[in-house]
Amino acid sequence: MNYTRTLFAQLYENIGKKAVLILYGARQVGKTTLIKSILSKFSSTLYLQGDDPKDALLLENKSAQELSELVNGYELVVIDEAQRVKNIGITLKLIADNVSGVHLIATGSSSFELANKLNEPLTGRNRKFYLYPLSLSELITAYGLSHVRREFDSYLSFGLYPEIVSATSREEKITLIRELAGDYLFKDLFLFGDIRNSFAFEKLVKLLALRVGSEISYSELAKEVGVTRNTIFNYVNLLEQAFIIFRLTPLYSNKTKEINKSHKIYFYDVGIRNALIGNTDPLDLRPDKGAIFENFFIAEKMKERAYAMRLSDVHFWRNRSGAEVDFVESINANQQISAYECKWKDGGSAPLSFRNAYPKAAFSCVTVENILSLFAAG
Length: 378
Known about the structure:
Elements: H1 7-14, E1 20-24, H2 31-39, E2 45-49, H3 53-59, H4 64-71, E3 76-80, H5 88-98, E4 103-108, H6 111-118, E5 126-130, H7 136-143, H8 145-150, H9 152-158, H10 162-166, H11 170-184, H12 187-192, H13 198-210, E6 215-216, H14 218-225, H15 229-241, E7 245-250, E8 263-267, H16 270-276, H17 289-308, E9 313-318, E10 324-331, E11 336-342, H18 352-357, E12 362-366, H19 371-375
Parallel strand pairs: 1-4, 1-5, 2-3, 3-4, 7-9, 11-12
Antiparallel strand pairs: 6-8, 7-8, 9-10, 10-11
Helix pairs in contact: 4-5, 9-16, 11-16, 14-15
């Protein structure tokens, strides 16, 4: 299935606005497919793969003259998995500065690695985009609302990576998600992330998966994993920079009443989370289905926010008496707040303490019955 990605129009429209466009995203989210759909819009293109040693050698340690000869005459040059090319930032800078009329796109599955190579050489010359697993909006566009409603439980079990969504049998989905959640997804982390204790890293990832939606303590995780708090913090940063997890911090206006030091951690894809804990059972057999649904909804809001390019802050809210709201998006220093509470079936209203603290906030209770209407295209 060739999905129409929301990011396509933004990426295409920005070609030429900056010397280099950078497309980030985890492995297998569809970066290469998206890039090839962009390439099809141009008549003269060059596509190079950083994963291919032959292509990498064409770009590594080359002079401006050699690079000019390589790309001259092409409208669009794409370097896929650019983090694999040594000194890629210098290479892109030399092309951008010395070849007129060529547009450059570089993709990477590891923002921490690619950013380190690009930031200084390409200061002011690049624009960044982020591609995530499929969104509900993209699925509704591709399949229609009724199909997505029928398949919704499958999405909560296996997630929204394109290949897994397209798989036709439950057995194939199980195989694919287990493969992806294994070494493949973490390949760049082990290569570039300076992870010296792979056992501790893997244990941490599973603990985070088990605690989705719960507030975490880095000190407690350090004790359980058997490493320092700083190591835990570094590993969490790496997982975030590799587009596997994201963190929510607390929303607070009165520091004496609300908890402001803890984080919640979610996965961009619930299928990856489920595979990491070894449980892809149907939802009606799952005691953790509420946490899965909460993670799924919040990840969808993160995708929506990113693709809409909203300049907002995202948080959870909880006060010391235990009242909480799962997801809060604020704009203009809390002048505009949208709050969401996730419930598997039954609806609800905002906690009184939250309404008192933020009387102008818009509040929605999200359930399995109404979630699709929040993301339906158009």
